[in-house]
Design brief:
- The complex is a heterotrimer of chains A (275), B (347) and C (262).
- Chain A is an all-alpha fold and 275 residues long.
- Chain A is 76% helix and 1% strand.
- A two-stranded antiparallel sheet of chain A has the order 1-2.
- In chain A, strand 1 and strand 2 form a beta hairpin.
- The longest helix of chain A has 34 residues.
- Chain A starts with a helix and ends with a helix.
- By secondary structure, chain B is α+β, with helices and mostly antiparallel strands.
- Chain B has eight helices and 20 strands.
- The longest helix of chain B has 18 residues.
- The radius of gyration of chain B is 24 Å and the shape is elongated.
- The two termini of chain B are 39 Å apart.
- Chain C has a single domain, classed as Orthogonal Bundle (MetI-like fold).
- Helices cover 75% and strands 0% of the residues of chain C.
- In chain C, helix 3 packs parallel to helix 6 and helix 8 runs antiparallel to helix 11.
- The longest helix of chain C is centred in the first third of the chain and has 34 residues.
- Classes of the chains: A mainly alpha (275), B alpha+beta (347), C mainly alpha (262).
- At the A-C interface, helix 1, helix 3, helix 5, helix 7 and helix 8 of A face helix 1, helix 3, helix 4, helix 5 and helix 6 of C.
Chain lengths: 275, 347, 262
């Protein structure tokens, strides 16, 4: 009794701010938009069907999936040496190194993208170096395109990959690698034959987490893409606030949720097979 | 005058096959100290928690000074509890800890300060009143916990393994202190322990518990010298276990030998429990058993002989002076016992 | 095994990628130039001056700070009792309700923002204080309950039992014993909720309006349309506030205690 009373305020707030809006989102995805652009109540899969039939939707989905997959792969691959360094570091350095790896999480994503603009832009650091070396006549186009989005996304996903890998690798017994070394394995072979297989579950977990985050990323594609890069997230945003086609935005969001649920399910299945 | 009554107290934990406490009944006179003694999992702590109101009994009643408190929540029972971990509030000073119970009772500030001072003086910690628990040693923390429990002038003092967190060196001293303090303030006390020495040294009454039941409720001497059950005989003190057959009431056959015992079952196979210090040299004994010495250990005050007899292994502790004490491994000798010292239970 | 040269090299690359944008933002906020040129043509405080003299941006900063404080207070007020119940009491549906309080984090903020827009717009709550507080609470409460539940679980149960036996009612025992001991956790939870709200961009993008906007939204819009170092100064303002909060927590309770590892 008293327990329910203690839970009540939080649960009420969750009902108002989470359960009701999400239920409404699902409901509105079944409405349709008439020729005048106004929303009409309906119970049909018409809006959803129109999206599924539209080739542009599939292009967006493909763009989003490849962007997320490639960025997640890079983020995980770059986080691995960071996590291995932290694991092998002396205890008094470990805290600082870990903090540095996840510090970007404390800095707003927009702020970091401004930094990337200054590094990758036409008058940015990289083009200044290239020009200084006389390597490029024209500035290299590194932002307002897919390259910029991918670099920004890799960086914004890396702290999450680091978190997963630091936790996952911390549990591995370091003596196994020492044993391999005493058996005559070189560093590289030890890495390939012992470290990598042991780290595989953590690597998979890091990849899947960053993939899911990458699929729904919005700020990075929007700002680094300069309005020229279209993914599912930017499309949902535009449908909701530019076109103001709520049923379509809601339907697109439901498709995104469905894809994410499938990815989570896959993760669960893989996790159970690994266990 | 009876102060505490446990009446068929029972507690079953969900999912457990056996009741943790299975119908315990006992009575404790005012001012007495009862030790609940038993191995871990015997239900002694659950019993204490039911007395304190921290655990609800499934059946049975708890009566304090004639009043049924079974339905009362812990904060309305007025019982001073010293927890195994002491459970001192880390964010309050020693004085703050002791004052807490008085504050909850609405004792006025001035009187509260005086009673806190008295309680801390009682345990000899007046100077450390301002310290936080983590600035105190284990023994000092224990005394603060005791002062906190006594400051509320409890109807019952409940101690849950209060010595187990202390160094072995400290234990004996603290044990005697607690006993002296308890007698000085006259608090009726229930004390949970798995250590028989503690129970025997401190208690007026010992309840030996096993599997949720009280096997024997008696004075420490009675429990040690005249264990009521096989469990008590094995759990309290050391005892050799011989096997035999009752020939006639009072007479037991062990191989060739016949032993006389004060009390035996009417017939059948029996187990005979003999304390090492009850084994006598031939000259002083009525019952004799042939024994072959397996090992001899000299400890100064006594000589321990581990022997093989027709009825089983026997441990004898003899005073250094007697001739039998000079036996070495391989020797055969006769050892004896007084009929009154044998405890006999059906096998 | 000590890290080898190759590993150190790759790790250095990783750290460079992680930290260079922040370092560059810090440097360029002091630029004297008109664009996001790096290296800057010279150094000055002109963009900070412009930031502090912009009424619009300062209003957004104020809004964000007030919103974050309110959200942190709300999240603690509803999160602390719920966490206490989850950590200490047994009741039917406990796991399900605990799951509900963590659920918003499973949803992409983009979808949550859209759902909140669809729900709050018809009620005329979009671009209002109550609407924004409700929206930000959805992402703050999961963190608050998570940390507070850990903090309450870390308080030994027998302290509370001791308080009961000394005559404290369950409520007084919770308020006088458990809550003060869990206080460092509450401070940490409050600080984290503040930061989550103060940096929240995507949900806010759906819910702000011309009369009520937040700093991250203004920064996002600025970065979308303009490329002068003012946005870097803006970014630094956000970083400074985050840093101040982190240092404040450290001074107040220390991280080790806040995380319950004392």
């Amino acid at each position: 009794m008293s327990a329910w009373l203690l839970m009540l305020p939080a649960v009420l707030l969750m009902a108002a701010g989470f359960l009701y809006p999400v239920a409404l989102l699902a409901r509105i995805s079944l409405n349709r938009t008439n020729d005048m652009g106004a929303m009409e109540p309906a119970h049909s899969l018409e809006t959803l069907g129109r999206l599924v039939e539209d080739e542009f939707t599939w292009e967006l989905a493909w763009n989003t999936a490849t962007l997320a997959a490639s960025s997640a792969l890079m983020a995980t691959a770059l986080a691995l040496p960071v996590a291995l360094l932290i694991r092998g570091a002396a205890p008094r350095w470990r805290g600082l190194l870990s903090l540095m790896a996840v510090a970007p999480l404390l800095v707003s994503g927009t702020a970091r993208i401004v930094g990337w603009m200054a590094i990758l832009g036409d008058r940015g650091l990289i083009n200044a170096v290239l020009a200084g070396l006389g390597l490029a006549e024209e500035p290299l186009r590194l932002i307002n395109n897919w390259t910029g989005v991918r670099i920004g996304l890799v960086e914004s996903l890396m702290p999450y990959a680091c978190l997963v890998l630091i936790a996952g690798l911390g549990r591995l017994d370091a003596r196994l690698e020492e044993a391999a070394a005493t058996l005559g394995a070189t560093r590289f072979r030890t890495f390939l034959r012992v470290t990598l297989p042991l780290a595989a579950p953590a690597l998979l977990a890091a990849f899947l987490l960053t993939f899911v985050l990458g699929v729904s990323a919005f700020v990075t594609p929007r700002l680094m893409g300069g309005g020229r890069v279209f993914v599912v997230a930017t499309e949902i945003f535009d449908l909701a606030l530019e076109t103001v086609d709520w049923p379509a935005a809601a339907a697109m969001a439901m498709l995104l949720l469905g894809a994410l649920a499938a990815a989570m399910l896959l993760r669960g299945l893989l996790g159970r097979r690994a266990a | 005058m009876t102060h505490l009554v446990l009446d068929r107290l029972t507690r079953r934990f969900p999912g457990a096959a056996q009741a943790a406490v299975a119908g315990i009944s006992l009575e404790l006179p005012k001012g007495a100290l009862l030790a609940l003694l038993g191995p871990s999992g015997c239900g002694k702590t659950t019993t204490l928690r039911m007395i304190a109101g921290l655990e609800k009994p499934d059946e049975g009643r708890v009566l304090v000074a004639g009043r049924d408190v079974t339905a009362l929540p812990p904060h309305r029972r007025n019982m001073g509890v010293v927890f195994q971990s002491y459970a001192l509030f880390p964010h309050m000073s020693a004085a703050g800890n002791v004052a807490f119970g008085l504050e909850m009772r609405g004792v006025a500030r001035a009187e509260r300060a005086e009673r806190v001072r008295q309680a801390l003086a009682l345990v000899g910690l007046e100077e450390l009143a301002a310290r936080r628990p983590r600035q105190l040693s284990g023994g000092q923390q224990q005394r603060v916990a005791l002062a906190r429990a006594l400051a509320i002038q409890p109807d019952l003092l409940l101690l849950d393994e209060p010595l187990s967190a202390l160094d072995a060196k400290l234990r004996e001293g603290v044990r005697d202190e607690i006993r002296a303090l308890q007698q000085r303030v006259g608090a009726t006390t229930v004390f949970v322990t798995h250590d028989q020495t503690e129970a025997l040294a401190m208690a007026d009454l010992v309840a030996v518990m096993n599997q949720g039941r009280v096997e024997q409720l008696a004075s420490p001497e009675e429990v040690f010298e005249r264990p009521a059950t096989r469990f008590v005989a094995t759990f309290v003190g050391r005892a050799a276990r011989l096997s035999g057959q009752v020939e006639a009431p009072g007479t037991i056959r062990c191989g060739e030998a016949l032993l006389r015992a004060a009390e035996t079952p009417a017939t059948g196979a029996v187990e005979i429990f003999i304390r090492p210090h009850h084994v006598r040299p031939v000259a002083a004994a009525e019952n004799l058993l042939p024994a072959r010495v397996l090992r001899r250990t000299y400890t100064g005050e006594v000589v321990s002989l581990e022997c093989e007899t027709p009825a089983g292994r026997l441990l004898a502790e003899l005073p250094g002076g007697v001739p039998e004490a000079r036996a070495t491994a391989g020797d055969t000798l006769s050892l004896g016992f007084a009929a009154a010292d044998l405890r006999v239970f059906p096998a | 095994m000590r890290p080898g040269i190759l590993l150190r090299l790759f790790a250095a690359l990783g750290y460079t990628l992680l930290l260079s944008p922040v370092v560059v933002v810090a440097a360029i906020s002091f630029s004297a130039g008109d664009f996001l040129t790096f290296p800057p043509p010279g150094f000055s405080l002109r963009w900070y001056q412009q930031l502090f003299s912009s009424g619009e941006l300062m209003a957004a900063l104020r809004n964000s700070a007030v919103l974050a404080v309110v959200v942190a207070v709300v999240a603690l007020l509803v999160g602390a009792p719920a966490s206490y119940a989850i950590a200490r009491l047994e009741f039917p549906g406990r796991d399900a309700l605990a799951g509900l309080l963590a659920a918003p984090l499973l949803l992409p903020t983009l979808v949550l923002g859209l759902a909140l827009l669809l729900a709050l717009q018809p009620l005329r709550l979009a671009a209002t204080w109550p609407g924004l507080v409700l929206a930000h609470s959805m992402v703050a409460i999961p963190f608050a309950t998570r940390i507070m539940t850990t903090a309450f679980t870390a308080v030994p149960r027998d302290l509370e039992e001791a308080a009961w036996t000394l005559g404290a009612t369950p409520l007084r025992a919770a308020l006088r014993v458990t809550l003060p001991i869990a206080a460092p956790g509450a401070v940490a939870a409050g600080a984290l909720c503040f930061l989550v709200s103060f940096d929240e961009t995507v949900i806010s993008l759906f819910l702000v309006g011309p009369r009520l906007s937040t700093l991250p939204v203004e920064m996002f819009r600025y970065a979308e349309n303009r490329t002068d170092p003012l946005v870097a100064a803006l970014a630094m303002a956000l970083i400074f506030v985050a840093l101040a909060v982190v240092l404040l927590v450290e001074r107040l309770v220390g991280f080790q205690r806040a995380l319950g590892r004392e």
